[in-house]
Design brief:
The protein is mainly α and 359 residues long. 50% of the residues lie in helices and 1% in strands. Strands 1-2 form a two-stranded antiparallel sheet. The chain is globular, with a radius of gyration of 20 Å.
Length: 359
Amino acid sequence: MRTSRFLMALALVVYAIVPVATVQAAGPYRGAALGSLAWVAAQQQPDGSFPGFGPGSTADAVFAICAVDGDPNGFLREGNSPISYLGQHAAEVAASAGSAAKTILAAVCAGKDPRAFGGVDLLAALDKSYDPASGHYGTDLAGHAFAMLALASVGRPIPDPAVRWLKQAQTPEGGWSWSGDPAPGGADTNSTALAIQALIAAGVPAGEAAIQNALAYLHTQQNDDGGFPYQKPSPWGTDTDANSTAYVIQALVAAGEDPEGPSWTRNGKTPLHALLNLQLPSGAFLWQAAVPGENALATYQAIVALMLRPFPLVHTPLAEPVLLPKTGLPGQGPAVLAGVGGVAMLLGLALRWRACAHR
């Protein structure tokens, strides 16, 4: 009973942090997304982070918060937010293109300047990872795609060689591999979804061959339940998983596709149906139906997909001098910003209630 009351209270906090206009216009899955976000809020650690694989997973949690137009600065545990946590690890994430890029995307979502985030210029770090000879950011496909998305989020031009490198990394079947190797048979749905979003963010038309071939590849990967696996064949099996399905939904939206349209419907089931079938009563998501247990990363990524939000979630062109607000999302009105402090207080009380309930 205590746990149930706690989750209900936390859900009210999450609803409070989301602007009413956004909730009304967010589409048919906003309730499912907000229910999941209440579960996510309950997982926050005392240092402000969220469970998973270090700063990258906390960035994913920030994306989930931002997807519903919440303010990650207002998600506090013992006075720490996911943004303050990421700031403390800025030097660490700056070491690779992918982690630097994801942190830039998270910082922009939170209204922070990635040029001075935790005392680190993350955009300069991203620039250092770029090889002008090849056009490649970092060492793999994911880091390259996230780098392009990060540049788009701050209004920086994406170098033409970077777009060319991404197109040339496309495999014969139309997808992309995580390593960026264009050899046949290496494509996976996750890398392909990121590549589609990166190309769209770079201004490549959805009708261009690279994107149309990628969509054709995704069609070959869709399961009869409407969802997607990592790849076929795969060491992890070919059952639908929440992470892959969520990433594909984001890519479809970015490319102007309707993820509930006839072309993406199998046996009456769409990718969104498949994703929702993996949601538990707690609001959390399973990774795969046959693998028990609440999966934090699957939940973070599912929330963004349920809100039909592709990357980058926020576009905030950087100006000189820095004009970004210290907290909050760009363009929020005074009423929303004033409410953030109250939400933070409520969230802190709810989390203290949780701690007491488990003593």
